[in-house]
Amino acid sequence: MEQRLQKLIAASGFCSRREAETLIAAGRVGIDGRVAVLGERGDPDVNSITIDDKPLSRAEPHCYLLMHKPVGVVTTNRDPEGRPIVADLLDDVQARVFPVGRLDYNTSGLLLLTNDGELANQLAHPRHEVDKTYLVRVRGRLRREDRQRLEQGVPLDDGLTAPARVQRVRSRGSHTWFEIIIHEGRNRQVRRMCEKLGYPVSRLARISYDFLTLGELEPGRYRHLTADEVNRLKKT
Ligand code: URA
């Protein structure tokens, strides 16, 4: 069946639909021996589709993983600096999964990985407003007015942040621990929000993603989502 190329690439499990659009725009996708353009459609039964000159493989069964990402690992599938990548932690997974969204190198916590480009695309879309809870440790004592600013919106270079919730605030010595729940997924968002208000972040961990939590999962370990969890995510 003929479909937009980005949809077809996502369905193959290569990457998310948005990432596929970037690949097409960068001229890395070919169709029948020429460079494909954004907006083009194709049919894997009829056309020869390539990424970086390698044939696009056909769709594989969907795989959904929940990982406890440790600090010191990057969430991309390739790192120009040669640092460890999350895929290095997968020992018994044949599917070519990719991370849903990302966590910084120095952030630990709950990371979803899948080869289901459609679901990844759905979850990453701002319209879906998936709640994500982060446990944060900042230097300094969080003042009441700054807590309110975090909750009401912090003006960052890329605009005002959406309303957030701050809970379980406790100060220990020269640090404050708290949880912040946000639904946006901007780059380094929590760190930038705190830094903007004068609080450098010394620890950051994502402890929940929508209804999913880390449970007893140790850093570096992962588990498959249950069918029920996958269905609930699809309804988000
Ligand atoms: N906010 C950040 O600052 N970093 C992350 O990794 C996730 C959210």
Question: In a few lines, what is going on in this structure?
Answer:
This protein is of the alpha+beta class and 236 residues long. The protein has helices spanning 5-11, 17-25, 117-124, 144-152, 189-196, 227-234, and strands spanning 3-4, 29-31, 34-35, 41-42, 49-51, 54-55, 64-69, 98-99, 108-114, 132-139, 155-156, 159-160, 165-172, 175-182, 201-209, 212-213, 222-224.
**Mean pLDDT value:** 93
Overall SS class: alpha+beta
Structural shape:
elongated
Number of helices: 6
Total number of domains: 3
- The third-level CATH topology of the largest domain is Alpha-Beta Plaits
Question: How big a fraction of the residues is strand?
Answer: 25-35%
Radius of gyration using CA atoms only: 20 Å
Q: Report the CATH superfamily of the largest domain.
A: Pseudouridine synthase I, catalytic domain, N-terminal subdomain
Helix-strand pattern: EHHEEEEEEEEHEHEEEEHEEEH
Count of individual beta strands: 17
Poorly predicted runs are none
Helicity, as a percent range: 10-25%
Report on the architecture of this protein.
This protein is α+β, with helices and mostly antiparallel strands. It has three domains: 3-55, Structural Genomics Hypothetical 15.5 Kd Protein In mrcA-pckA Intergenic Region, Chain A; 64-126 and 212-234, Pseudouridine synthase I, catalytic domain, N-terminal subdomain (Alpha-Beta Plaits, 2-Layer Sandwich), CATH 3.30.70; 131-209, Alpha-Beta Plaits (2-Layer Sandwich). 21% of the residues lie in helices and 30% in strands. The chain has six helices and 17 strands. The chain has helices at residues 5-11, 17-25, 117-124, 144-152, 189-196, 227-234; strands spanning 3-4, 29-31, 34-35, 41-42, 49-51, 54-55, 64-69, 98-99, 108-114, 132-139, 155-156, 159-160, 165-172, 175-182, 201-209, 212-213, 222-224. The strands form four sheets. Strands 7, 8, 9, 10, 13, 14, 15, 16 and 17 form a nine-stranded mixed sheet that branches. Strands 3-2-5-6 form a four-stranded antiparallel sheet. The protein has a two-stranded antiparallel sheet with strand order 1-4. β8 and β9 (108-114) form a beta hairpin. The longest helix has 9 residues, at 17-25. It is elongated and about 65 Å long. The chain starts with a strand and ends with a helix.
